[in-house]
Amino acid sequence: MSNLDRQATPSVCGGRGFVVAEPVRELLTPRHVQLGESTEVRRLLPNLGRRMVGAWAFVDHYGPDDIADEPGMQVPPHPHMGLQTVSWLHEGEVLHRDSLGSLQQIRPRELGLMTSGRAISHSEESPKPHARFLHGAQLWVALPGSDRHVEPRFEHHTGLPAVTAPGLTATVILGELDGAASPGTAYTPIVGADLTLTAGAEARLPLDPDFEYAVLSMSGEAEIDGVPVLPGSMLYLGCGRTELPLRAASDAGLMLLGGEPFAEEIVMWWNFVGRSHEEIEQARQDWMEGPRFGEVKGYDGGRLPAPELPPVALKPRGRVR
């Protein structure tokens, strides 16, 4: 998914200087952003107070939206570099096309994982016809310096592994959780898991104390370590935890995001993750003028132009504002 904000602002993040080394309970409220003509998303990362959780650098939650009489998601071809995109659905379908020639319909609880590496472009759209409801999350993972120029690739995985307990199913989307490992390619120590809780469930999820964590609420009524978290909000949990208490008042859907704190400072602007203003500037020029990001074939419409760069140089700084 693209950042479609026509007044794109830089996000400076990464580095270990602002990692919370002990458990905390920091509730992050979303910013509402219009994505195309018919989809509004709740943006949790980057947030006013916190920019990253491990290598997770961008989190949008959308829906559930009734799109029975609407076009649904319509995101024109746009570029990415230096990151991975993670597409995750609870309802509906998204049709993915990219400049590698990939054409894949992504359905609920299937992993669509695109590694941009040095350069890729893609589009996302609700297929015709499509299901009545659309509900999901789009996330980005920053690639470390050693791997950020890898060849681009797209992966689609079904039948993901799960960790279970009474009233809890944790499907491992990326990385590893309690010995269960996702088949998706990861470049840093990381975890992403979809948590399904039944009404009345109380469970404790094992965690790695060296990771920092956050939990995104997708649906239902749940308490995370005693804190009620409403759908569309996210609770940042810090580091130093060996387990996470969960309780559900109703059937609930959550996403656990975590990882080793990202050591490098990065610059994130529009749909690019880089390390300097010059690198971002060159990527923008290459998208507007050159063949670097390739061509997405089959999308009915033009590609997305890049916004103007800000008048001041982009500089990598810390993880929080």
Automatic annotation (TrEMBL):
Cofactor(s), names only, from the UniProt record: Fe cation
Keyword terms: Iron, Metal-binding
Boundaries of every Pirin N-terminal domain copy: 41-141
Domain Pirin C-terminal: 193-293
Region called Disordered, residue ranges: 298-321
GO molecular function, one term: metal ion binding
Binding site for Fe cation: H78, H80, H122, E124
Cofactor: record remark: Binds 1 Fe cation per subunit.
Family listed: Belongs to the pirin family.
PANTHER family linked to this entry: PIRIN, PIRIN-RELATED
The name this protein goes by in its record: Pirin domain protein
Native source species: Streptomyces pratensis (strain ATCC 33331 / IAF-45CD)
